[in-house]
Design brief:
With 225 residues, this protein is of the alpha/beta class. Helices cover 38% and strands 26% of the residues. The chain contains nine helices and eleven strands. It has helices at 2-7, 24-27, 31-41, 54-62, 108-111, 124-137, 149-157, 167-175, 205-224; strands at 16-22, 45-51, 68-72, 80-88, 90-94, 104-105, 116-118, 143-145, 162-166, 180-183, 191-198. The strands form two sheets. It has a six-stranded mixed beta sheet, sandwiched between helices. The protein has a five-stranded mixed beta sheet with strand order 2-1-3-11-4, sandwiched between helices. Helix 3 packs across helix 9. The radius of gyration is 20 Å and the shape is elongated. It starts with a helix and ends with a helix.
């Protein structure tokens, strides 16, 4: 009946609970746009949001504890459908020295003098950064991992160390001078996000919401660029 109502153009009749898992980068960029569109399109739909790291979101999705996850993907399970969302390049950023403006140039060896503020241990950026420093300098970096991008940015702004952050996330801090970008010979791989869900013929709303997220993510990415 729900499928027939949607096909008949009656999304207002769609109700129930959507358990949505989201990575923090998306929370801090365009999640509010998605929620606003959901409220207008599906006013009777309740949304329960869980913000967590990708490894946990993936596990909860596969275990059916989440209906839809917006995470660093794709999820390589044959039961999971993945729609590409957006790509966010990572930059190096730190608190500027007094009076400094514009990007500064530092090699990875220069950066060894500072703690590197980055993603948690069970993430690809954390692994890549550790391996890149070892391979290119012969020394391990001091890594300060955090599950919160906001915490990483605040620590970088206060001079704790060098942050590895999505450019879109740090843009305001760069623009108003709280952070300065570091140009170096190597950067972690850009973050690629997917809308991932286990398709259920009885719940076409999952595909609809994933497609909605995909459209919003592409619009946001093109605007930011």
């Amino acid at each position: 009946v729900q499928t027939m109502r949607e096909r008949a153009g009656m999304p207002a009749e769609v109700s129930g609970l959507l358990r949505l898992g989201v990575s923090e980068t998306i929370v801090q960029t365009w999640l509010s746009d998605l929620l606003a569109e959901l409220r207008v399109t599906y006013p009777a739909l309740d949304v329960e949001i869980s913000v967590d790291v990708t490894a946990n979101l993936r596990n909860e999705l596969v275990e059916h504890a989440l209906d839809l996850a917006l995470l660093m993907g794709p999820v390589s399970e044959y039961t999971v459908t993945n729609l590409t969302l957006s790509e966010y390049p990572l930059i190096w950023a730190m608190r500027p020295a007094s009076g400094a403006t514009g990007p500064v140039r530092m090699s990875l060896r220069d950066m060894l003098a500072y703690p590197i503020l980055t993603f948690p241990r069970n993430t690809r950026p954390h692994f890549e950064i550790s391996e890149a420093f070892r391979a290119r300098t012969g020394e391990p970096p001091r890594l300060f991992p955090s599950t919160s991008l906001s915490a990483i940015q605040r620590m970088a702004e206060r001079g704790v160390g060098i942050g590895s952050l999505p450019r879109v996330f740090a843009q305001n801090a760069l623009s108003d001078g709280r952070l300065i970008e570091i140009e170096s010979e190597w950067y972690p791989t850009a973050l690629n996000y997917t809308a991932s869900y286990i398709a259920d013929p009885s719940r076409p709303i999952l595909t609809r919401v994933a497609e909605m997220a995909q459209a919003i993510a592409k619009t946001t990415s093109s605007t930011a660029s």
